Amino acid sequence: KRTVSPSTILKREQKWLRMLNNWEAFMSKNYKKVRERCRKGIPASVRPKAWLYLCGGQLLLEKHPNEYEELLQAPGDPKCMEDIRKDLHRQFPYHEMFIREEGLGQQELFSVLKAYSVLNPKVGYFQAQAPVAAFLLMHMPAVQAFWCLVSISDKYLSGYYNPGLEVLQRDGDILHALLRRTAPAVHRHLVKHKVEPVLYATEWFLCALTRTLPWDSLLRVWDCFLCEGVKVLFKAALVILAGALGPAKVRKRACGLCETLEVLRHPPEGILGEDYLMYHMQRLNLTEEDFEFEHQRQTARRRAMPNRSGS
Questions:
Q1: Which letter, b or e, does each residue of 34-54 get, where b requires 16 or more Cβ atoms within 10 Å of its Cβ?
Q2: Metal-binding: is it a keyword of this entry (predicted)?
Q3: pLDDT value at 299 more than 80
Q4: What pLDDT sits at residue 138?
């Protein structure tokens, strides 16, 4: 793993503090500089505040200063409350914050998820939100984690948690089409063995890679994800696919659907490392126009499909 010197970290911290103190000006006039600094990695000391600002959680918090506490006073849907309680112990069970049943971490996780379910009854509670909320709580107080979750659920992963998972299926098709450009041999292998994106990419997207990547890699990917949006998840997914199934000898051994899925569920540790992942994500030969083109193409294709609601 590449190490960063203390003096470099200190310089980056100072740059980030200056940016955060002039946030609106930087985002409106110098977004490319913000993006560049996110890609280098946000210093740990400023990461919680940076994430809150990057995703728009700070704006929501300022706009609705008392709403989180008000949402917690509501009774909440009994079915949602029951489902949330069932999932609390499953989120990062070995992390000190969540290891104790009914400890402070689990209580705060329940509160954040309950508040969202009351705020957005159309979605209520979706299981994949739990690891996202837990990951946020490891970095910031509950009220900040809540507004970040609202922004991520409603803006970054918009439509992912709606019934039918149609948006997720469309994005799986986009991923598949982009893979044909970036790793054609891997794409051919998946087509040959009928390995649909919904079979391997669902958890990657719904949980924003919180259940997939090791800690350091997840932090780096989220630094970029909260700055650049969902396309970062696509890039990470493309690198994982190419890294796991790129070698011809691996594809030869993965001679069927089940064998291929096993490789993707347990990719080699090396390709999930932060240096490998960030290096290859930034070198993918994909433009904004490529993403937009595939988004429009797959959206139009799905609209033209018969019985779309049943797909």
A1: beebbbbbbbeebbbbbbbbb
A2: no
A3: yes
A4: 97
